[in-house]
Amino acid sequence: MELFDLTGKVAVITGSSRGIGRAIAERMAEHGANVVISSRNLAPCEEVAAAINAKRPGAAIAVAASLSSKAELERLVAETRKAFGRIDVLVCNAASNPYFGPMAGVSDDAFTKTLQNNVIANHWLVQMAAPEMIERRDGAIIIVSSIGGLRGSTEIGVYNISKAADFQLARNLAQELGPHNIRVNCIAPGLVKTDFARALWEGPYGEELIKATPLRRFGEPDDIAGAAVFLAGRAGAWMTGQTIIVDGGVTS
C-alpha cells in the first residue's frame, strides 16, 4: 500500500461535487488523504463531504468556489489551509463547455469563458498553491484535461482548444516547479459517463462512439480516479510534465 498511501496528505479537488471529481475525492480519501470538495454550489459539496466523513470523520470539508472568480479561488485555498494547514495535492478537474458547434458560430463570450474556466483558472490555482509546496519541496498537481485536446472536432473544437492548452500548461509548470520536487501532470480521459458529458454519450452518435472504442464501453468516473491516486502518491514520484490517457483505447 505504500506506493498509493496518501495518509496525512491534503488534496483540493475542484469540480468534485459529482462525476470524475467526486470519484477522485472519494478514492483519495479512501487512501488516507484529507480532501476539500469544491464546486460552484455549496449544498452538493456538503453532501459529498458528509458521505466521506461518515466513513472517515473529519476527512473532508466543503468550500464553494466559481472558476471565474479569482477571489473565490483564493478563499478556497485559504479555507483549506485554515481547516487542514496545508495543500499537498491540487487536482484541477472542474471545467466548462458552454458551446457545441463549429468554430464559426462561437460567441466571443463563450470562447472567453471556456478559456477562462479551463485554463486561466487552473493557472491561478497553481500560483496560489505552489508557494507552500516550493517551501516544503514537495507537491503534486494534477490537471484533468481530455483526449479532445489531441484531436480536432466539428462540435467541441473550442473545448478541445482549451484542453490542448492544459497539456502545455502542465509541461511548462513541470519545467518551472520540477527543481522544487513538485510534479505536474495531466490526465486525459476519453468519453466518461458523467452529467457534464451527457450530451455526447446520450446523443445520436453514442452507438458509433462505442463502436470506435476498443473496450466497447464508455468510461466511468472511477476509471479516472485510479490514475489520480497514482499521480498523487509515491507511485508517481518520478513522473512530471506527462499526460496519462485513459480512454478505453480510442486513441490507440
Could you describe the 3D structure shown?
The chain has about 250 residues and is α/β, with parallel strands linked by helices. It has one domain (about 1-245): NAD(P)-binding Rossmann-like Domain (Rossmann fold, 3-Layer(aba) Sandwich). Helices cover about 45% and strands about 15% of the residues. It has helices at about 20-30, 40-55, 70-85, 110-135, 155-175, 200, 205-210, 220-230; strands at about 10-15, 35-40, 60, 90, 140-145, 180-190, 245. It has a 7-stranded parallel β-sheet, with helices on both faces.
Instruction: Find the count of extended strands (DSSP E, 2+ residues).
Output: 7
What's the number of domains?
1
Distance between the termini: 30 Å
- Catalogue the unreliable spans: none
CATH homologous superfamily grouping = NAD(P)-binding Rossmann-like Domain
Sequence of strands across the biggest β-sheet:
3-2-1-4-5-6-7
Beta percentage is: 5-15%
What characteristic shape results from the CA principal axes?
globular
Please compute the radius of gyration using only Cα atoms.
17 Å
Mean pLDDT: 95
By oligomeric state, this entry counts as: single chain
Count of helical segments? 8
Largest sheet: 7 strands, parallel
Under CATH, the topology can be stated as Rossmann fold
The CATH architecture is 3-Layer(aba) Sandwich
Which structural class should the secondary elements be placed in?
Answer: alpha/beta
SSE series? EHEHEHEHEHEHHHE
Estimate percent helicity: 40-55%
